[in-house]
Each structure stands twice: as C-alpha cells, then as structure tokens.
Here is the input.
Amino acid sequence: MTFAAIAVAVCLASCMQASIGFGMGMLAAPVVALLEPELLPGTLIMSATVVTLMVVIRERESLDLRGTGWALVGRVPGTIAGALLLVWLPQRGLALLLATVVLGGVLFASLGWQPAPVRRNLATAGAASGLLGTATSIGGPPMAVVFSGAESAKVRGNLSAFFLVGSLMSIVALAATGKVHAGTAVVFVALVPAVILGYVVSRHVNRFLDRDRLRTVSIAVSTLGAVLLIGQQFL
Here is the structure.
C-alpha cells in the first residue's frame, strides 16, 4: 500500500515535470517524506534523471546550451554543499527544510518573480538548485524562476537539460557520502514504470490542461504536501 501511494505520487510528479519542466521533487517529496523518508533524496533524484532524459530528447531543438552551461557552473559547488548538508542535518531538520523549500518555491511561482537570465543569475540559481536539489530533491524553483520568461518548449528543454546533468552530479555526490545505496536503487528501478507512465500521460494531459492550469494544480498539491509534512513533524 505504501509503495502504491509513492508510485502514484511519482507518476503524477513525472507528469508535472514533463509538462512544465520541474516539479518531481515539489510534488512527490512531501509524500515520500511522510511515508518512507529514508528514500529521500536519492530515489527521487534518480527518478528525475529518467523523465528529464526523455524531455531533453523530445525538446532537443529548443535547447540553449550556453545558458544551461552557466547554470551548471553554479551547480557544482551547490551540489557539494547539499551533500554535506545532508550528512550533518538530522531527519527532522531535513523534513522541515524540505517543507520550507516547497513553500518557498510555491511563493516564487505564485508571485511570478522573474530575474533576467544573465550569467550571474543563471550561475546563482544553479548553485541554489544544486544545494537544495541534492539535500532535498527539490531543485526546481530557483531554475524555473530564471527560465520562466521563455516559451514552453524552451523552458521544458533547458530545465530538463540542466536537471539531467545536475541530477547525475547529485547522485555521484550522494553516493560518495553514503546516501545512495542498494536499497534506494532497488526502489528506483521499481518506480521506473511509474515515471515513464507519467511522461506518457503528460503528452495527453497537455492537450486538455494548459500550462497555467497545470501549474495552479501543482502549486495547490505541493502546498498541501508541505503543510502535511510540517504538521507531521510537530504532532
């Protein structure tokens, strides 16, 4: 029953990621943290590599490798800091950090704040995404903010290219600190069909649910998950 609930959350999160370019962690992480916190962040980061690879292939003509490259420069120190933070932070602290990051991402998404995608902002967002993504599996909001002004295909393609390489960096860093192990890998493999199903569903959902409506639904679900996670830690 627990695995089924996680698989549904991962499927929906993969659909969201493939539709708007981010969201795997924002949507699925609070659910996983409530049910099987030991799977975080490794299982979700590995799942994200699958869906981002598929989106990069689909949106390859819209990629801007120069902008993505500057973001990845910032991702390197952020990834290292995130892996170290995960080693030092207790489980409760990690859960509260995760919930705070989700709510912060929701706030930025709701306000529509959009800094210019220049080198400094891209590198800064890449560093923040690396730290948060490696520590909590939620690295989407900082990058989504700087790429949000582009057309949908370009947003999805560039975010996915960044997260594909960035997720691989995070997996290496987590493995080096012992946070990725055989148990996480087994669950990841079992969740791959849910990830692929979410990607396939996204291609059909986008015909009926436009980007703005999907974003609204995603924000609402993410907020609910974060609030439930905070409530669990204090009850």
About this structure: Residues 2-234 form one domain. The chain has one domain: 2-234. Residues 182-208 form the longest helix (27 residues).
